[in-house]
Amino acid sequence: MSAVFCGEQDPAGNGSDMMGEDSLATPPDDRYNLLHDNCARPLYHNGANSVTISAWAEVWDYLGGTSYRAFVADQNGEKTLFAFLDHNIIDLDLKQGLMALIELAESALGCARIVMCVDRDVSRSQAQAVLKSFRWVGFDLATLDFLSTDLDVTSEKWLFLSMDV
């Protein structure tokens, strides 16, 4: 992901500067650079194919007891909402929050797709249950190849599930 969002040409780095996005304080501290010191604004320059982070949000589902941290990646006007599911919320009721994310992406954010980033630290049984549920909704396993032209973008920390909206 660091290759896509920060223009790092070595995809074997220690992770993207945006990967801390799922654990930042809410609301963000203005004294802390949201995107860390070495990457003022995530940007992957590849001629006409540049990727920027245009927004971020945290969606709270008080009924289900979950919160989703998310950001919008914009590549030449085509927006993708990335939302994180870490191991702490994987067993909770995700339905209402997920429906709110889909509606938010579709309407207010104008996204063409949603990518759910599922923590790979979840147990095998949890992963199978989440994959089954998300595939039923319309998500499929994905890579981030649609954002990069010549890089193989996979993550050791996150499993990507994508759906067009």
Automatic annotation (TrEMBL):
SUPFAM superfamilies: Acyl-CoA N-acyltransferases (Nat) (SSF55729). Belongs to the ODC antizyme family. This is Ornithine decarboxylase antizyme. Interacts with ODC and thereby sterically blocks ODC homodimerization. Residues 1-23 are annotated as: Disordered. GO terms for biological process: positive regulation of protein catabolic process; viral translational frameshifting. It holds the Pfam family ODC_AZ.
